[in-house]
Every structure is written in structure tokens, then in C-alpha cells.
Amino acid sequence: MAATYNLFRNPGHGEDEKNSKLHARLVKQTTIRIDRLVEEISQISSFSSADVKGLLEAFRSRMEFHLSCGDIIELEGLGTFNVSLKCPPLTDEKKIVPSLVRFSKVNFRCSGLLKNKLKNMRFERDSSGSRLKGFSPERRKQNILAYIRTYGTISTKECCSINGCSKHMALKDLKNLVLEQKIVRRGLRHNTHYGLKE
Known about the structure:
three-stranded mixed beta sheet; 6 helices; 9 strands
């Protein structure tokens, strides 16, 4: 299979929009969830889907434990995971006590082996036409609803991908669909996703 891309103009910095440089961006991306991975792994191995799901749950649990201890997890051929921290912007080190230090995020650094494998990716141009002018608001909303009907839910990032738009525009489209009572918002912050209104 080939990854699908389309071309977009870089945001202008005082230059003529027609002459601004183009960049390629992946489109038609889908989020592959755990159930699909479990099914695919069980089909290409001698493990049952229950075995695979159990193993992945145990693996997630061990990752959570070691990351919470401040360890770096290295998965050969995949990459490394580590936790980064945040604290208040104080200048006196004595004022930054352990209770003020917080978890920030999990960082992932891709392994050289995986990078080299991905260098051989195949690409094809999106057949739905040029995105240089962008989709109309109605077309963007139709794309969002079609995606949700196919995959169940959509995130802001997926919305940006299928419509080739900014995060600001994606949030605006999703908010309008919520106001039109066609979709509902679920989850909070980074776990926010949208589904069809029942």
C-alpha cells in the first residue's frame, strides 16, 4: 500500500501567496486502534487475539511502571520512550520543591532501523484533486461526518489530516457541527474526540 499525500502552500510571510513554496503533507490518515492491531498480529502469528491483547496489556503496564520510575525504555528496532518534566519558572532553586515538579509528556525517539525502513515508503498523490485552494466549509464538514461514520470517532488531528487544514479551522468546523447537533464531544483535552449524535 502507498501513503496518500497532497500539496499545500507554506504560510506566507509577506510574500505573494502564488509564489509561496509548496510542501507535501499526508492526507487520508486513519488512527489504528488496539483492536485492529490485535487482530492483525493474531493473523500473522500463532497467537490468539486474546493472547496478543493480554500481552499488550501487560506490556503497557510494565511501560507505565518503568516510565513512572524515571527509566528510559528502549525497544530495539522501534525506538526509546522517556518522560519529561515541568516546574514553575522560579529562579531560586530552593523554592522548587518536589511537590512543584510535574509530569509533562512522554517523548518518543524513533530508532535508526525503523527510520531506514520508512525511507522506502511508497507515496501516491491524493486522487480527490488539488488542495491548494482548500475545501469549502461544507465539504470539510461532509468529510468529517463521513470519517466518523466509517471509523466511529474523529480527533482534531485526524480532522486536520482529512481536510488539510489548520488546527484552528478544524476546531471551528467541529464546534459548528456540535452546535448543529450532528456530533457530540467526548473526553477532555488530549483525549478529546467526536462521535455522531445518537
